[in-house]
Design goal:
Fructose-1,6-Bisphosphatase, Chain A, domain 1, D-Maltodextrin-Binding Protein, domain 2, eight-stranded mixed β-sheet, five-stranded mixed β-sheet, 8 helices, 15 strands, about 20% strand, globular, binds 2,6-di-O-phosphono-beta-D-fructofuranose
C-alpha cells in the first residue's frame, strides 16, 4: 500500500470542514447552522444507503398509502420522510418542518425547538424509483425571528428569504449541492470514507446552454410562449444549432445536469395544470435559489421565482430555470404575449 498517497487522502475538503470554515468567518455564530446541516447530511447518507439497497431489501414498491397530492406513496418515500423528520427534529435546531409527504406542517416539540424552518421533498422523482434512475432530496432553510411564536406564516415567505438551499442526488454517485447564499458548491460522497468531499467548488452555470429539458408529452396543452420557445429550441431563428432535448423526469437529475452543462429546465403551466406541477416551497424555491447563486435565472412565467409569496404550504407554480440567456429568451416571449393581450 502506498502510505504517503493514503495519508494525502486525509487532507480533503469535507463538507463538515467546508461549513466549519464558513462558520469561522462569522465569530458571532453559535454553530447552530453547522449542526442542522450535519443532521441533513446524515439523513442524505441514510437515504442514499437505502436507495442503493432498495432492490435487495425489497423497499421497492407501494407502502399502501396515498400522500397529500393523491399519489401512491412508495416504501422508499415513506422511509425517507421518516428519516428526515427524525434527523431534523433531533438536531434541536428546527421549529417547523414542511415535507412533500405530509399534508400539515410539523411543529417541533417546544423543548427541542431551534431557529430554523426546513422545507423539503425527502425523495423527489418517485416515478423513477423502481427502475433505478436518479432521484434525490431537495431542501430549503428559513430562519424564524421568535421561536416562542412559531406559526405556519414563518414558512410562507418568498424564496429570496431562504438562508440556504440544496439537494442530494442519488445517482451513479451521491452528490450534495449546497448554497448558503455565497455561491454554489458540490460535494460527492466517498463511500469508503462515508464523507462528502468538495469536488465541484463554486459552480457557475454556463451563460447559455445547448440543452432544453421539458416533458414534451404535455405540448398540446401548453400556452403560446412556452410552445413558441420550445419551437425555437428545435428551429432556431438566428442560424444557431438546434438545442438537444434531455428529460429524466426527476427534477433533481434534470436540474443538476442543467446546472453543470447549462441550458434550460421547464415545467410550464398548461391547460390541465394552470399552476404547473412543481411545488413552490420545496422544489421551485430551492432550485431557483441554487440557479441564481450559480449565475442563472428562475422565472415563473410572470416574474422572478424567488419573489413569489406562497399562500399555502403545498402550492404549485410553473417554472423555467437555467442559463441566464436561455431564461431571458423565454421571459421576452412571455412579456410579448402580455403586451399582445393588453
Ligand atoms: P415525480 O412525479 O416522479 O415525483 O414533482 C415530482 C416530479 O417527479 C419531479 O421530480 C419531476 O421533475 C416531475 O415530477 C416529472 O413530472 P412529469 O412526469 O409530469 O414529467
Amino acid at each position: 500500500m502506498d502510505h504517503a498517497a493514503e495519508a494525502h487522502r486525509t487532507d480533503l475538503m469535507t463538507l463538515t470542514r467546508h461549513v466549519l470554515n464558513e462558520q469561522s468567518k462569522h465569530p458571532e455564530s453559535k454553530g447552530d447552522f453547522t449542526i442542522l446541516l450535519s443532521h441533513i447530511v446524515l439523513g442524505c447518507k441514510f437515504v442514499c444507503s437505502a436507495v442503493n439497497k432498495a432492490g435487495l431489501a425489497k423497499l421497492i414498491g407501494l407502502a399502501g398509502d396515498t400522500n397529500v397530492q393523491g399519489e401512491e406513496q412508495k416504501k422508499l418515500d415513506v422511509l425517507s420522510n421518516e428519516v428526515f423528520i427524525k434527523a431534523l427534529t433531533s438536531s434541536g435546531r428546527t421549529c417547523i418542518l414542511v415535507s412533500e409527504e405530509d399534508e400539515e406542517a410539523t411543529f417541533v416539540d417546544p423543548a427541542l425547538r431551534g431557529r430554523y424552518c426546513v422545507v423539503f421533498d425527502p425523495l423527489d422523482g418517485s416515478s423513477n424509483i423502481d427502475c433505478g434512475v436518479s432521484i434525490g432530496t431537495i431542501f430549503g432553510i428559513y430562519m424564524i425571528k421568535d421561536k416562542n411564536k412559531v406559526t405556519v406564516e414563518d414558512v410562507l415567505q418568498p424564496g429570496k428569504k431562504m438562508v440556504a438551499a440544496g439537494y442530494c442526488m442519488y445517482g451513479s454517485s451521491c452528490m450534495l449541492v449546497l448554497s448558503t447564499g455565497r455561491g454554489v458548491n458540490g460535494f460527492t460522497l466517498d463511500p469508503s470514507l462515508g464523507e462528502f468531499i468538495l469536488t465541484h467548488p463554486n459552480i457557475k452555470i454556463p451563460k447559455k446552454g445547448s440543452i432544453y429539458s421539458v416533458n414534451e408529452g404535455n405540448a398540446k396543452n401548453w400556452d403560446e410562449p412556452t410552445a413558441r420557445y420550445v419551437e425555437r429550441c428545435k428551429f432556431p431563428q438566428d442560424g444557431s444549432s438546434p438545442k438537444s432535448l434531455r428529460y429524466v423526469g426527476s427534477m433533481v437529475a434534470d436540474v443538476h445536469r442543467t446546472l453543470l452543462y447549462g441550458g434550460i429546465f421547464l415545467y410550464p403551466a398548461d391547460k390541465k395544470s394552470p399552476n404547473g406541477k412543481l411545488r413552490v416551497l420545496y422544489e421551485v424555491f430551492p432550485m431557483s435559489f441554487l440557479m441564481e447563486q450559480a449565475g442563472g435565472q428562475a422565472f415563473t412565467g410572470k416574474g422572478r421565482a424567488l419573489e413569489l409569496v406562497p399562500t399555502k404550504i403545498h402550492e404549485r407554480s410553473p417554472i423555467f430555470l437555467g442559463s441566464y440567456d436561455d431564461v431571458e429568451e423565454i421571459k421576452t416571449l412571455y412579456a410579448a404575449s402580455v403586451e399582445k393581450e393588453a
